[in-house]
Amino acid sequence: MYKTNDLILRTTTSLIAFILLGFAIYLLLAGHNSPGGGFVGGLMTSGAVLLMYMSYGIEAVNKMLPINFVTLIPIGLAIAVATGAGSFLFDVPFMSQTFGYFTVPIFGEIELATAMLFDLGVYFTVVGVMITIILTIGNDQ
Amino acid sequence: MNEREILEFIAVLLILLGSILSVISAYGIVRFPDVYTRSHAATKSSTLSVLLTLSGAFFYFWISESFFSVRILLGILFVFITAPVAGHLIIRAAYRSKVKLSEITIEDELHEVLHEEDKEFIHKDVLEKEDREKILRNEDKQK
């Protein structure tokens, strides 16, 4: 057997994974006015994490990212249900959404919508489902 | 032609150059004899063609619609970093699964390096095995 030497793959992964994660956050935040949203952002994040799993191996990444990805699924679903049920507090139908304009120090005046919180729930669920599926298949060997 | 039209013309020229290069790359993939030279055609020239096309699109949107697309810049950076690494990994996998080189190849220096490494590893394994057997025999004697 050859001793494996993945120096090029690992060095590139440590650079690429950051670009992928940043782009995933961008897609998650930009979903309201341009293509993107929770689903694509979640897929992209899981792609970055899977790239790290491919180049570093399962045990090393489990040490680097001590997250149990199965628990992300109920967290995301709970966020989505909570944003839907939160509209009862204001005496409006289920899953109503609203938005407002706020002034933030760096960005100036921006529009913040409650649909963003629902997208965050979708994001967590998609990340949890994707990584759970692939790790369950990969651990069988 | 005013200034804006000239800049748009340069952007369109970049896209044309990129598409010509991608045709050349596809022609190289068909014409070259083995997997290594084909990958040489597939990674280098198609990476350059994608980069030229993307930068042409970037300049076009910047000039004609004054839209500064960060996504296209990120895409240029991303393709520039990942495409050579993908080519490297594919060719490495091909070499290690012993895909034959074409008959016009003159020299294969990597073969000797890998072969020597292989011998050393076998040697080490044999030594460890003998050591293990000796230890086992000693334990049997003590019992």
From TrEMBL, chain A:
Residues 8-132 form the Na+/H+ antiporter MnhB subunit-related protein domain. Pfam families: MnhB. The keyword Lipoprotein does not apply. Keywords: Cell membrane, Membrane, Transmembrane, Transmembrane helix. It is a multi-pass membrane protein. Its main location: membrane. One of its GO terms (cellular component) is plasma membrane. It is found in: Cell membrane. The chain crosses the membrane at residues 7-29, 35-53, 65-90, 110-137. NCBIfam families: PRK12573.1. Belongs to the CPA3 antiporters (TC 2.A.63) subunit B family. This is Na(+)/H(+) antiporter subunit B. It comes from Virgibacillus profundi. The lineage of its organism: Bacteria, Bacillati, Bacillota, Bacilli, Bacillales.
Automatic annotation (TrEMBL), chain B:
It is found in: Membrane. Pfam families: PhaG_MnhG_YufB. It is a multi-pass membrane protein. The chain crosses the membrane at residues 6-30, 42-63, 69-91. Keywords: Antiport, Membrane, Transmembrane, Transmembrane helix, Transport. One of its GO terms (cellular component) is membrane. GO terms for molecular function: sodium:proton antiporter activity. Coiled coil: none annotated. Belongs to the CPA3 antiporters (TC 2.A.63) subunit G family. This is Na+/H+ antiporter subunit G.
